[in-house]
Amino acid sequence: MADMSEYALDPQYEWLREQVDGLTVASDDRSRVVQWVDNDHKLGLSRDSGGRVELFLAGPPLHGKSRVVQAAREHGDWSSNTGGVVRASRIRLPNAPHFDRVAAFISAELLAAGINDNVQQAYADIEPLIALAFEESHAGSPFVLGLAGELLFLRALLRGAAPEERGFIAAAWMGSGRTTRDFQLDSVGVEVKTTTGAASRHHINGIAQIECGVSVDSVPETDLFLLSVGLKWLDLDATYGDSLPGIIESIRAMLDHATDRQLFETAVAGYGDLQNSDAPTMSSAEWKRPFYTTFERLYELADPRIELPSSQDLVNYVHLDLDSLSFRISLPDQIDGDLNPLTDLESAASKVLGLFRQNRNSA
Predict the structure, then answer these.
(1) Three-state secondary structure call for residue 307
(2) Do 107 and 40 share a domain, yes or no?
(3) SS3 label, residue 354
(4) 121 and 177 belong to one structural domain
(5) Are residues 79 and 191 in the same domain?
(6) Structural domain count, the chain
(7) What gap in Å lies between CA 275 and CA 269, rounded to an integer?
(8) Which of 5, 43, 236, 320 is most solvent-facing, going by the fewest CB within 10 Å?
(9) Do 184 and 262 form a contact (C-beta atoms < 8 A)?
(10) pTM for this predicted structure
């Protein structure tokens, strides 16, 4: 199967891109303006009222193996404005960033697979590609994924904080890359990991991410937590869920002082590296894409029932650079009843804030 890069200068692909770009947005949910892209009218393209691209494959019902594609596919008799009826399967592609380009790519592959000769065989050949496109749309941007999890927790912390604490808490967000911690509230550290998967399976960069150390202010850590967030991306036209612009604006509204707001905005702009060519811009569809959380789990890593390696376990490996270690962890949904992990952002924020205040009062 071809790679999208092979189509960069392909005349047919460029023509298909033009056809997709020129699709008429449907006036309502019941009507479509279908652009047929082959002489035999076996493959058509349309755009629904929300802006998503749809594929129409003329003929009897299609059979495939992918459940995710099957959920987006329906067969029916479609009435045309000339009085005729077209039997076709419609595949509703995700309304996600860059899917106009993906629609053109899939169309080019279907044509190359011989859809004019055998619709079912061409579909069977290309269905894995369509399924992969769906999966990638569900994964979204790793950059935005990480930022979303951290800002969700920052918003929860600010909501649970007293007004006079909010400036300090906003500054405790270390997500722009200054330390191994995403949040450092004096001696309390929090590492945030976000996934589109169904379980708390996360990539760890170095032992320091999962054991207490020394904070950015040279204060020995007393507590360390890992916040695991499950996230599901929604289509761009979804009218519910959270989004980065919405969360950022709500955080700004909770910061009373202009200096605090400026520091927060600078931290967002410097997250990871927004100047990286792979990072979406703040005006991009990826940045604005809505989402919702599927789970929220705050793990107390000092719990002895969480069995992870420590630097002490590796002390005899004198030639090993501990900071270079990279590995994956898989944490269970439940470790100690309803105490570890805590299973919602409000409780997680309350726990961290309580320890932060307790440590400050005892200092």
Answers:
(1) coil
(2) yes
(3) helix
(4) no
(5) no
(6) 2
(7) 9
(8) 5
(9) no
(10) 0.73
Beta carbons within 8 Å of 215's beta carbon, 6+ residues apart? 179, 181, 184, 186, 187, 189, 221
For residue 177, the model assigns a pLDDT of: 59
The pair phi, psi for residue 250, each rounded to 5°, is -65, -35
Q: Are the C-beta atoms of 244 and 231 separated by less than 8 Å?
A: no
Asked whether residue 131 falls in the same domain as residue 199, the answer is no
Tokens of residue 202, six digits: 């996360």
3-state secondary structure 57-70: EECCCCCCCCHHHH
Range of the domain at 32: 4-139
Q: SS3 sequence, 95-111? A: CCCCHHHHHHHHHHHHH
Which of 336, 40, 321, 348 lies closest to 191 in space, CA to CA? 348
Same domain assignment for residues 21 and 132:
yes
Phi then psi for residue 144, to 5 deg, are: -70, -35
Question: Six-digit token pair at 105?
Answer: 């790519």
β-pairing, 223-233 with 200-205?
A: unpaired
| One domain for residues 178 and 88 | no
What is the rounded distance in angstroms from the CA atom of residue 155 to the CA atom of residue 165?
Answer: 13
47 and 23 in contact (C-beta within 8 Å)?
Answer: yes
Measured between alpha carbons, how far is residue 149 from residues 53, 79, 230, 291 in Å? 29, 46, 9, 11
Same domain as 216, residue 124: no
Q: How far apart are CA 271 and CA 265, in angstroms?
A: 10
Cα–Cα distance measured from residue 45 to residue 22, given in angstroms and rounded to the nearest whole number: 10
- pLDDT at site 277: 47
Are both 173 and 205 inside the same structural domain?
A: yes
Which residues of the chain are under the pLDDT cut of 70? 1-9, 139-140, 175-179, 215-217, 272-280, 363
- Last residue of a domain, which of 139, 157, 186? 139
Last residue of a domain, one of 112, 139, 166: 139
Task: Give the pLDDT confidence of 340-354 residue by residue, as tens digits.
Answer: 999 999 999 999 999
